[in-house]
Design brief:
Elements: H1 2-14, H2 16-23, H3 46-86, H4 105-119, H5 123-131, H6 140-143, H7 149-158, H8 162-171, H9 177-195, E1 221-222, E2 229-230, H10 234-248, H11 254-263, H12 267-272
Antiparallel strand pairs: 1-2
Length: 286
């Protein structure tokens, strides 16, 4: 009766629909023509489902920890290089950006930062608005503090000066801006899933990271030799996050803390996340 009460309380707090995604891996295979059997494999308990749910939550928190550090580093390096070359309000000068990118999205993100700087209750923004009436918004080093991660990704891609993008890329651990942009777009998508408390542990993401030669030994690659691509599950995103964190702090404890969490899950669950056999011995985890 106590176990039933725990299950009822859990379902009332989390919802049946949300939890059903976590017990799907524990269901028997459906009959032909059916999508789900709705019958558990023998020996599975509700505790197993709750533990998987908790693991997914912990994984999201670990991802957000890494994303926070990477987001701040990206802001700092991009802002530094742009301001040093084009001045304090370079973001308001359209000649610095690719106006054809994504149907002229520059004007939308530019208007967004101007609007946000008018209504923000941040002390440093209020100080600027009290002291200055022009330019329309604060200097870039203040304005970037208002960017979302997705907006920062767009500003990076919009930057017309490829030398700046390559400098930022190298500071964050990539040889080219193309690799960095691919990584940031994937991380932004994963970050949004985490921020909205969505399941990430076995999700297949629509945006893949690119193959990074320096990480190829540690990445999960799939497909025939002439059409190799990066697997689109969470494993490769974690590899890229670790790589970027190590660039900032070579002795970070992040890989060991993350691997300790993952090792507690079954081999089949690790495989569902995209982890290859023998992943613990791969260079990125050591």
């Amino acid at each position: 009766m106590r176990d039933q009460q725990i299950a009822e309380n859990w379902l009332a707090s989390v919802s049946y629909y949300r939890m059903s995604a976590y017990w799907l891996p524990y269901e028997k295979k459906p009959l032909k023509g059916k999508t789900r059997s709705k019958e558990f494999i023998e020996g599975v308990s509700f505790d197993d489902v709750m533990e998987l749910y908790i693991f997914d939550r912990q994984l999201r928190l670990m991802i957000m920890e890494a994303v926070e550090r990477i987001e701040i580093a990206l802001r700092a390096r991009w802002t530094h290089f742009v301001v040093m070359r084009y001045g304090s309000h370079a973001h308001l000068d359209s000649t610095n950006f690719d106006l054809n990118y994504r149907k002229g999205i520059y004007w939308r993100v530019r208007d967004s930062v101007i609007k946000n700087s008018k209504v923000s209750d941040e002390v440093f923004i209020k100080h600027y608005n009290r002291k200055y009436s022009s330019p329309a918004c604060p200097p870039l080093w203040a304005a970037t503090e208002l960017f979302t991660f997705g907006e920062m990704s767009i500003w990076l891609s919009l930057t017309k000066d490829n030398q700046i993008k390559d400098l930022v890329a190298r500071d964050l651990g990539f040889r080219t801006s193309r690799l960095l942009e691919g990584a940031i777009q994937n991380i932004s998508l994963v970050r949004n899933k985490c921020a909205h408390h969505s399941r990430v542990w076995n999700r297949k993401f629509t945006k893949r990271v690119r193959i990074v030669n320096e990480l190829s030994e540690s990445m999960m690659l799939i497909g025939p030799a002439d059409k190799v691509q990066v697997d689109n599950r969470i494993y490769n995103t974690l590899v890229v996050l670790i790589h970027m964190l190590k660039q900032q702090a070579p002795h970070t404890s992040y890989p060991s803390r993350l691997s300790q969490m993952v090792r507690l899950r079954s081999k089949s669950e690790q495989s569902d996340m995209g982890f290859p056999i023998g992943w613990e011995a791969l260079p990125i985890w050591n």
